[in-house]
Amino acid sequence: MIKNPTIRDIARAASVSVGTVSRVLNGHKSVSPENRRRVEAVIRKFGYRPHPIAQSMRTNTTKMIGGLVRNLTFPMMAGFINSAEPILDKAGYVLVFANGNDSVEHELMIIEMFLRRRMDGLLMTLCDEGAPQLRKALKAVNVPMILLDRELDLDADTVWIDHRGGATLATDYLLELGHRRIALLAGNLAVRPARETEAGFRRAYAACGLIPEERLIVHSDFMATLAYRNTADLLTMEEPPTAIIIGGSLMLPSVLRAINEARLRIPEDISIINGCDSDLAEFATPSITVIRKDFAGMGTVAAQLLLERLGETQAKKRKPHRIILPTELILRQSCAAPAVAGKIAATRRTSARRR
């Protein structure tokens, strides 16, 4: 057995040229079936692995895809990764994810690292669509790029979730139940999901000829600590909300904690709709009505679009695609008609005296 075999050793053992071995390694169809079988048998026998740097120099490709996500702790990222990775893997690409940590500076560093390492394509989301440094960095990207749930004026395919439609469905449902003081934990307006969620919320009110209470629309990051404080503040208002729509995926535990500490019952005293589905939402008592969003579908579509782009020639380059994935409202046990006027406020005052 040859230790650390080279491509020349493979060619010699298979009785073919070095060029034939190279074509087999790079998947060219011009190799005869017999020669291909012979080369592949020797490769398996010797345990040969082509040197990645040398191979990338020959093919001008690294077979690596860079993925930048705002925060890998978001539960929906598991569905996205589990859907995108097998598609790219089957096509011979390795998906490398990096965590942006909700920092513009960190995201800039990751983008630069991806480009230095010659990633063949990028799957991108950002913490702040309006940051001029990020926009400038992305405009300089010269490989295929898919934007994930972000709205930027770039020559790139985009895959969006229909956050506006989902928020409209949720708000419509609560209004039909009789709620008028509905709070919205909307998230940071620096990103598309928060803007679209608020737009859907306002659209539902307008369709009923109503105007939402501005103090009940809360803009902040989708972080657990902020969700707890914002919910506690809402529940201590003189006229607290009778329902809450939760915009972010990490907010639900903190919102439930604040409601529990206020000694309120769901849905008797306050109704809850979460902005995405999760195990907690499904198995909580009572189970939580949710806006279901297809992040797994986003992973599938994004990977397929990227592979299409990677297979293009400059002469046949198509125009950017924008794909919007639908949302649906999953009804569970956390919503009911609002309590009689003043009941929540009275409950809050009683619980305050107990503490």
Q: Can you lay out the helices and strands and say which pair or pack?
A:
Blueprint: H1 7-14, H2 18-25, H3 33-46, H4 52-59, E1 64-69, H5 76-90, E2 94-99, H6 104-116, E3 121-124, H7 132-139, E4 145-148, E5 157-161, H8 163-177, E6 182-185, H9 192-207, E7 217-218, H10 224-235, E8 243-246, H11 252-261, E9 271-274, H12 279-283, E10 289-293, H13 295-310, E11 322-325, E12 327-330, H14 343-354
Write a compact overview of the structure shown:
The protein is α/β, with parallel strands linked by helices and 355 residues long.
Protein architecture, described:
The structure is a single chain. The protein has 355 residues and is of the alpha/beta class. It is 45% helix and 15% strand. It has 14 helices and 12 strands. It has helices at residues 7-14, 18-25, 33-46, 52-59, 76-90, 104-116, 132-139, 163-177, 192-207, 224-235, 252-261, 279-283, 295-310, 343-354; strands at 64-69, 94-99, 121-124, 145-148, 157-161, 182-185, 217-218, 243-246, 271-274, 289-293, 322-325, 327-330. The protein has a 6-stranded parallel β-sheet, with helices on both faces. Helix 8 (163-177) packs parallel to helix 9 (192-207) and helix 10 (224-235) runs parallel beside helix 11. The protein is elongated.
